[in-house]
């Protein structure tokens, strides 16, 4: 493993992902972790991430004591570069001039990281302090107009540092520099591949679950689908999946779970048709938070009832029907684990998962086969497991589903209208080949708003549809997507022509912040 020491901000996750793109496993650890604990994880290499602070700021994060005595090859990036320089006897200075954004570094002495690369390179910078002199034993490898030590290395001791961000795509040769550190500097081998990940995860699930049984809630989303498919490979019919059809899914999605997913994976599926139940629980409710609470609560209750039946060993028996159901499969991903403290064990898991909150007499041990993976790795794993691309490449969809995309009370008729409009928008996006460029494409029905229109020579008084295509890296921030006009036009024409009650289509051009991605 490669440890990415997190000095703050969002840099560490991106670095960890880039390391894995080099087919080397990486983990993020806090900068407060003692060096001995780091060593206990037997790292092949350590990377010190960027961070927002100045090394001279009060409370600025520092490298753990003894980190540079571990004998592990270490690469400092940005703030990590400065931490390394300072700890080993170099000098870091404050500057009045910040260097943000694109810059050009000149390679002064290629060393290992820059060997054979162009003398001048475009890089991405984001710093104010700078290293003015490298520690004894280091060679300065690169500099810019304002940063005398933009790169340094002490190959003998396995220490490397760069002031710029190799993990950012604007840094022309960033990936090459990272690969050199990993392969040449640290002797890592590129053996983190999907085949190995799948095999290892399947073995781990088998070892954890043994002959016992497990259940899993399928939502129709990528994460639960991949987790379920993987666990099915590991333990076969000892797994029972529960699919709660709450009636708030998009057109074709229940069928995708009930038919396509089962056909491909052979998973043992228990379907609960709870549409009426959700509709009556939501009857007349317009407040967004209220809707979320009701949907969450009903989901747990329905799942709980299904789980009880399965635990009792009812009709779904499957293999090992007499064994107790001890395990609950969840599609928790690595970013959730990192953001909630990075520790191990169930206590740290964010509560956004649909089936948290089960009653005390229904306690399960969690099986989380995806908890070391990033989203793109989960998708690759899904492909490796043979899941259809409509599932693997499905855009994120909120747990409360279309319930929070109808502004106003939720009714069956309104759901049908929204489903039709949404299906058209998705179809045209796919036809234009833009699926994977768009992070998410909510379609929203303003059910309590009416506007006047003219259709077929007569006056109409219908509802508007809002299109909300966004681009994003992680849903924390988002930008409104500039879809081509002809695509927007086709969507608009088709929705007003084909969907009853809709006489107006609008596009939401708000970024996040200030808007959120969803309207409720
Ligand atoms: P917002 O609207 O807050 O959404 O910008 C950020 C991301 O989260 C999704 N989302 C949810 N996902 N349960 C979920 O599983 C929820 O209650 C929920 N609310 C929002 C949203 O679709 C976007 O991807």
From TrEMBL:
Pathway(s) annotated for this protein in UniProt: Purine metabolism; GMP biosynthesis; GMP from XMP (L-Gln route): step 1/1
Entry binding sites for ATP: 219-225
UniProt feature coiled coil, ranges: none
Lineage of the species this protein comes from: Bacteria, Bacillati, Actinomycetota, Actinomycetes, Streptosporangiales
Gene Ontology CC annotations of this record: cytosol
Record's function text: Catalyzes the synthesis of GMP from XMP.
Ranges of residues in domain GMPS ATP-PPase: 192-394
Organism the protein comes from: Actinomadura darangshiensis
Subunit organization: Homodimer.
Identification of the protein by name: GMP synthase [glutamine-hydrolyzing]
Superkingdom, natural source: Bacteria
E.C. number(s) listed in UniProt: 6.3.5.2
Active site: 78, 165, 167
Top-rank EC class of the record's enzyme: ligase
Catalytic reactions on record: XMP + L-glutamine + ATP + H2O = GMP + L-glutamate + AMP + diphosphate + 2 H(+)
Xref: Pfam families: GATase (PF00117), GMP_synt_C (PF00958), NAD_synthase (PF02540)
Keyword Cytoplasm: no
Protein keywords: ATP-binding, Glutamine amidotransferase, GMP biosynthesis, Ligase, Nucleotide-binding, Purine biosynthesis
SUPFAM superfamilies associated with the record: Adenine nucleotide alpha hydrolases-like, Class I glutamine amidotransferase-like, GMP synthetase C-terminal dimerisation domain
């Amino acid at each position: 493993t490669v440890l990415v020491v997190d000095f703050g901000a969002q840099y560490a996750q991106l670095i960890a992902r880039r390391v894995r793109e080099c087919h080397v496993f990486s983990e993020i650890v806090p900068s407060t972790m003692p060096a001995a604990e780091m060593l206990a994880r037997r790292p092949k290499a350590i990377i010190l991430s960027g961070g927002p602070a100045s090394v001279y700021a009060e409370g600025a994060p520092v490298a753990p004591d003894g980190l540079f005595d571990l004998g592990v090859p270490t690469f400092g990036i940005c703030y990590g570069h400065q931490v390394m320089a300072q700890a080993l006897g170099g000098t870091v200075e404050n500057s009045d001039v910040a260097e943000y954004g694109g810059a050009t570094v000149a390679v002064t002495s290629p060393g290992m990281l820059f060997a054979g690369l162009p003398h001048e390179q475009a890089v991405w910078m984001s710093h104010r302090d700078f290293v003015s002199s490298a520690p004894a034993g280091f060679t300065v490898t690169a500099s810019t107009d304002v940063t005398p030590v933009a790169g340094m290395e002490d190959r003998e001791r396995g220490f490397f540092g760069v002031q710029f961000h190799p993990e950012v795509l604007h840094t022309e040769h960033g990936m090459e520099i990272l690969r050199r550190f990993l392969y040449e500097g640290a002797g890592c081998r590129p053996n983190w591949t999907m085949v190995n990940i799948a095999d290892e995860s399947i073995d781990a699930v088998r070892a954890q679950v043994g002959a016992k049984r497990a259940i899993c809630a399928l939502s129709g989303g990528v994460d639960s689908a991949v987790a379920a498919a993987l666990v099915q490979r590991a333990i076969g019919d000892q797994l029972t999946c529960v699919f709660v059809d709450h009636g708030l899914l998009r057109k074709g999605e229940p069928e995708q779970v009930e038919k396509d997913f089962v056909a491909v994976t052979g998973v043992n599926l228990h379907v609960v048709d709870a549409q009426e139940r959700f509709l009556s629980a939501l009857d007349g409710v317009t407040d967004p938070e209220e809707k979320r609470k009701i949907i969450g609560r009903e989901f747990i209750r329905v799942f709980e009832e299904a789980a009880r039946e399965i635990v009792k060993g009812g009709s779904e028996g499957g293999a090992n029907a007499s064994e107790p159901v001890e395990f609950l499969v969840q599609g928790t991903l690595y970013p959730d684990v990192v953001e909630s403290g990075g520790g191990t064990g169930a206590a740290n898991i964010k509560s956004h998962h649909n089936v948290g909150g089960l009653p005390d007499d229904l306690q399960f041990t969690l099986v989380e086969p995806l908890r070391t993976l990033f989203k793109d790795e989960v998708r690759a794993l899904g492909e490796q497991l043979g899941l259809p691309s409509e599932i693997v490449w499905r855009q994120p969809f909120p747990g409360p589903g279309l319930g929070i995309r109808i502004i106003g009370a939720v009714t069956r008729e309104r759901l049908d209208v929204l489903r039709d409009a949404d299906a058209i928008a998705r179809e045209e996006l796919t036809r234009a080949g833009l699926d994977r460029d768009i992070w998410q494409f909510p379609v929203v029905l303003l059910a309590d708003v009416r506007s006047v229109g003219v259709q077929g020579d007569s006056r109409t008084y219908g509802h508007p549809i809002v299109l909300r295509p966004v681009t994003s890296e992680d849903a924390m921030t988002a930008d409104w997507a500039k879809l081509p006009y002809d695509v927007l036009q086709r969507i608009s024409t088709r929705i007003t022509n084909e969907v009853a009650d809709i006489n107006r289509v609008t596009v939401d051009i708000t970024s996040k912040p200030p808007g959120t991605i969803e309207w409720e």
